[in-house]
Amino acid sequence: MLFLLSPAKALDYDTVSGPWPHTRPLFVQQASELIEVLKAKSLQEIAGLMKLSDALSGLNVVRYQAWSTTFTAQNSRQAALAFNGDVYAGLDAKTLSEGQMAWAQDRVCILSGLYGVLRPLDWMQPYRLEMGTSLATAHGKNLYQFWGAQIADHLNQRAAADVSPVIVNLASEEYFKSVSRKVLKARVVTCVFEELRAGKHKIISFMAKRARGLMVRYAIENKLASVEKLQGFDAEGYRFDAGASAVDRLVFRRPQSP
């Protein structure tokens, strides 16, 4: 099984996390092409394109100008350690063992507007480019058209070793849209996390994001190899709800936040 995650907007390039190994991103040529488009834009254009404040726009203009096809310990960090949002708080990659990280490296795919797909140990230079951004390139009017079938093709290659390939979708809708379902050959299983609020089960965004990271952590720790094993996930009070689930949509609920 492969596990899909979204990236995070927040980044951490400061916290010391130990001497982890690293790998080179798989789509550097494509990332470089996007960077060249971004470098040509003014601060005001970046602000309008991404709906950012002047301060954040300025930060990212500097990042684009500094971005290089040469990845080093000075300008890069492993993706699973660099992303710093709710998903990655749940994953807590810095506390994985060497063996667990190696397992994750083979099975966890982080979707990215700039890098396409990142493995946990891929070196990543800081950036801001959400997949839903309407960045026009020679390939089309947005990033979905830029990436086209490339991400699905890559996932097909990664999943080909499995007799019955399965993609566990723990990414947001914005990011999963970058995976062409017409091209993707694997079965897709989506995990949904809900909270009980005022008598109704609801998806609470930041809690669901954390739960996605917790699910990947659970898969890594237990080296899960089947969809059925996902049902045993019980971190932070979540339980599998068979009645609310379907074959390819696994629903996990908890009565209230711990």
Identify the notable features of this structure and list them briefly:
alpha/beta, two-stranded antiparallel ribbon, eight-stranded mixed beta sheet, globular, 258 residues
Structure description:
The protein has 258 residues and is an alpha/beta fold. Helix content is 36%, strand content 17%. The protein is built from 11 helices and 10 strands. The chain has helices spanning 28-39, 43-50, 54-66, 79-82, 86-91, 98-107, 143-147, 150-159, 173-176, 205-222, 227-230, and strands at 2-5, 77-78, 108-112, 116-118, 123-124, 166-170, 187-197, 200-202, 239-240, 249-254. Strands 1, 3, 4, 6, 7, 8, 9 and 10 form an 8-stranded mixed beta sheet that branches. A hairpin with a 2-residue loop joins strand 7 and strand 8. The longest helix is centred in the C-terminal third of the chain and has 18 residues, at 205-222. It is globular, with a radius of gyration of 18 Å. The two termini are 30 Å apart.
Q: Tally the helices.
A: 11
Which structural class fits the helix and strand makeup? alpha/beta
Major beta sheet summary: 8 strands, mixed
Radius of gyration: 18 Å
> Could you estimate the helical fraction of the residues in percent?
25-40%
Name the beta content range: 15-25%
Uncertain residue ranges: none
- SSE order, as H and E? EHHHEHHHEEEHHEHEEHHEE
Q: In total, how many beta strands? A: 10
Shape: globular
Q: Average pLDDT value?
A: 96
Distance between the termini: 30 Å
